[in-house]
Amino acid sequence: MKPRQTREIRVGNVRIGGSAPIAVQSMTATRTQDIPATIRQVELLEAAGADVIRIAIDNPKDVAALAEVRAARPNANLVVDLQENYRLAEKVAPFVSKLRYNPGHLYHLEREKPVQEKVRYLVDVARAHNCAMRIGVNAGSVDPEKVTKYDKEDSIAPMIDSALEHSRMLDDLGFDQYCVSLKDSDPNKVIDANIRFSEARPDVPLHLGVTEAGMPPDGIIKTRIAFEQLLTRGIGDTIRVSLTLPFENKGDEIKVGRAIIDDIENGRFRSVPRFEHKGLNIISCPSCSRVENEAFIELAQNVREMAQYAKQHDITIAVMGCRVNGPGETDDADLGMWCAPSYVNLKRGPLSLGQFTYDEILGRVRAELDRLIEEKKSA
């Protein structure tokens, strides 16, 4: 690996950036309000060697649950994932070591308020509670104003623009305890976005991840490609492997991440420079606490098995587990699903095809897949 040039930040008792070892992290998969299950997830991830553990917070009941999780696991390096409600920051900050926010979600609440004012509030909260911050930019939920500035074919530029803008906001506020992530389900875009950002801001620690990498082994391959190409360039200070896994196997994300780092450090490479998009591509998000029905995991597995007859066709199918990232991050797929508690939303590209029960959805996806194949043959 080339030496990293980033500054160092502190997340609890973990150092990220500079000469510190690359930190490996993951996210709880259970509903945050299911306190025993969430505590169990934290214990599993700690046992697997997680340096940092992220928990999603969406409402006051989640905050109350987080307080109990913190009481049960007082030494865990917990990070909060603020979703649409950034105002919850001051309530959760006493229980965590880092606040993660998505610039593309800040407009959801108090739309009349300037973004700079919201960011100042987050920085004030982080300072008051000695929290680090992460600016988390996701391809499927970029600030709409950024998206309209660039050519539709360039999905990377809006992400980088957003990350750079928010980095400047934190700099202007005199806050340097932050890192940045730029994530996409396409490992090539993850590579390109992080290289371009690091060239502009070599000082900012980077959190690496391929979001919606999918199920093993494909999800591991996509992640390995991105990490090998970036870490060897000295880009990346902390990593998250995002896999669709049963809840009890969540610790595998940590084991895979450490195995990839160990291989890179010892000169063992298993990937190629670019990910080849040929044949069937199944995208599925990691099982996390935003998932509203655990049946999502089984659905993703069933879709992969059902669709094997189409493996020679260049078709992308996306299976998303929640309403937060699901709607936007299925737009680029040929067929996309995002899962609600009792039904599944089916899309063809950005076009909605309706809502179907978990019992109905597989047959409907098969019919749409057949239709896509016939259209490609006709073309």
Look up the CATH topology of the largest domain: TIM Barrel
- Strand content range: 15-25%
Helix content: 25-40%
Strand order of the largest sheet: 3-4-5-6-7-8-9-10
What does the largest sheet look like? 8 strands, parallel, barrel
Task: Report the radius of gyration as a whole number of Å.
Answer: 20 Å
On the 0 to 100 scale, the average pLDDT is 92
Uncertain parts: none
Shape descriptor: globular
Distance between the termini: 46 Å
Class of secondary structure makeup: alpha/beta
Could you give me the name of the CATH homologous superfamily of the largest domain? Answer: Dihydropteroate synthase-like
Give me the strand/helix succession.
EEEHEHEHEHEHHEHEHEHEHEHEEEH
Q: Give the CATH class of the largest domain.
A: Alpha Beta
Count the helices. How many?
12
How many β-strand runs? 15
CATH architecture of the largest domain: Alpha-Beta Barrel
How many domains make up the 3D coordinates? 2
Summarize the structure in words.
The chain is α/β, with parallel strands linked by helices. It is 37% helix and 18% strand. It has helices spanning 35-48, 60-72, 89-92, 115-128, 144-147, 156-172, 187-200, 218-231, 252-265, 295-306, 326-329, 361-378; strands at residues 9-11, 14-16, 23-27, 52-57, 78-82, 98-101, 132-138, 178-183, 206-208, 238-240, 281-284, 316-320, 335-339, 344-348, 351-356. It starts with 8 loop residues before the first strand and ends with a helix.
